[in-house]
Design goal:
Length: about 270
């Protein structure tokens, strides 16, 4: 099982297709792992890319420490992976809360290793409603309430979350098998990691994004129920005017699974011209 060790001794599980192609680094969403990218890795590899996907600390097959569930630490983990695998001219793809790591990487790390970044169903630019961010998705207390609900009833919370994950206002877009697979992946996550990282969804990344310095693609489902389009992707162009926006019609949050062909085609189309 391929693993690498980051600064504080945490082991991160990763998968690497190898090859000489441009690296595409896939950063998964909440409760999931690298396994959530199963529908996308094959087509990306077939298109000539070196695909790297890893399990965030606390999730999947990586170590389950009691601490480190903040974006500075999670982004340092990503930077360590980039350095240890010596990935250059790379494309970072941050899905959902993974978009936070991509944003913080842009704001705090050397972007010289990057050719571009993708924010997919991402929590960016700022989901928490505050006096300076009235366009967010909900007040900060709402995220705290979600943490409490997950802590009190992990299984019930995950069941509801994963239904909305694959749903739009017109109904469920995933097959029973796809929903079951997501449940199996989420079962590997540690409860402290699940609870603590919910609180991260409310963070404000506008300062991190202000000077992106690389090409940016924003891809989002029109009917996303977990990260509403109007509070997230629709606002990214105000901060990064040069960013490209790809909207998946009637797409839910989990567009990389339910609309895998369109999603992966958008990634390849973006990466091919960098």
């Amino acid at each position: 099982m391929p693993e690498l060790t980051v600064a504080d001794g945490v082991s991160l599980y990763y998968e690497d297709s190898g090859g000489d192609g441009r690296p595409v680094v896939l950063i998964h969403g909440w409760s999931l792992s690298a396994a959530a990218w199963a529908a996308n890795v094959g087509p990306l590899t077939a298109a000539g890319y070196r695909v790297v996907a890893y399990d965030r600390r606390g999730f999947g097959r990586s170590s389950k420490p009691s601490t480190g569930y903040d974006y500075d630490t999670l982004t340092a983990d990503l930077a360590s992976l980039m350095e240890q695998l010596d990935l250059t001219d790379a494309v970072l793809v941050g899905f959902s809360m993974g978009g936070g790591e991509v944003a913080r990487y842009l704001g705090t790390q050397d972007v010289g290793r990057l050719a571009g970044v993708v924010f997919a169903s991402s929590v960016t630019p700022a989901l928490g409603i505050t006096d300076t961010n009235p366009g967010g998705a909900m007040p900060i207390q709402g995220f705290t309430d979600m943490q409490d609900a997950c802590r009190a009833d992990r299984e019930g919370f995950l069941e509801d979350f994963l239904v909305s994950f694959f749903s739009t206002p017109t109904g469920l877009k995933a097959s029973p098998e796809q929903v079951a697979a997501a449940h199996e992946i989420a079962a590997q996550a540690a409860l402290p990691a699940l609870v603590e990282t919910i609180g991260l969804w409310a963070q404000d990344f506008r300062a991190d994004l202000a000077n992106a310095g690389v090409a940016v693609l924003v891809i989002h489902g029109e009917g996303d129920q977990n990260v509403p389009f109007a509070a997230s992707a629709a606002r990214m162009g105000d901060i990064i005017p040069t960013s490209q926006l790809e909207v998946i019609p009637d797409g839910p949050h989990g567009i990389n699974v339910t609309h895998a062909e369109a999603f992966t085609r958008a990634l390849i189309g973006f990466a091919d011209v960098l």
